[in-house]
Amino acid sequence: MSDDARRPLLQIIVASTRPGRIGEPIARWFAEYARAYEGFEVEIVDLAEVDLPMFAEPEHPRFGRYTLDTTKAFSATIARADAFVFVTPEYNHSFNAVLKNALDHLNREWAGKPATIVSYGGVAAGTRAAEALWPVLVGLNMVPVSAAVPIPFAMKNVSGEGDERVFSPAPETEAGAKAALDGLAAWVGKLGLQGTRA
Q: Where are the beta strands (DSSP E) in the chain?
């Protein structure tokens, strides 16, 4: 078994799906930073590429008796994670409907796993979105890691065009990312999640 196979899997979930979103370069930066941290295997889950309709399963997700192939595929993706980072913008003092829909599709796949938030926006740095998201994560029995990463005026730190856009973090953002990864790694260890994937 390789070193990567023994590492816990950190999924970075990109919430925004709109054209021109800056969540994508921010998520790529965090993924690169997390790989350099060397405590995790890292995977980006981009909700723009996840084919989920508005919630249409006939049974409560806690039963895991999914009928739609889209839900089954999303369930398999999320189930293999050991920890989560949600990269979210702020829409009208909250997080977006696409993320809420994705969270609502599943239940046990989220539970018992540490999670934190990378929020971004203008002067408020997406913090109102994070405040709205925390209780949802707790309601799904995730373990909240308080060391979140708020990014103010995030657009100013994005350069380039299209798929080549790059996010260049401020020193305090990098420090926040380090603290978030430390918190996630600590909880993964406490919860004994390493090596639980097939």
A: 9-14, 41-46, 83-89, 114-120, 143-144, 149-151, 158-159, 166-167
pTM of the model: 0.94
User: Residues with Cβ < 8 Å from 184, sequence gap 6 or more?
Assistant: 10, 40, 83, 85, 114, 115, 116, 145
Write the single-letter amino acid at 109: E
CA-nearest of 143, 156, 153 to 189 is: 143
Q: Enumerate domains of the chain plus CATH numbers.
A: 8-191 (3.40.50.360)
Provide φ and ψ at 73, rounded to 5°.
-65, -45
70-109 residue pLDDT tens:
999 999 999 999 999 999 999 999 999 999 999 999 999 9
- Taking only Cα atoms into account, the Rg of the chain, rounded to an integer number of angstroms, comes to 16
- Would you say 110 and 80 are in contact if contact means Cβ atoms under 8 Å apart? no
Torsion angle in degrees (nearest 10) through CA of 144, 179, 185, 95: 40
Phi, psi dihedral angles at 163 (to 5 degrees): -70, -10
pLDDT at 5 over 80: no
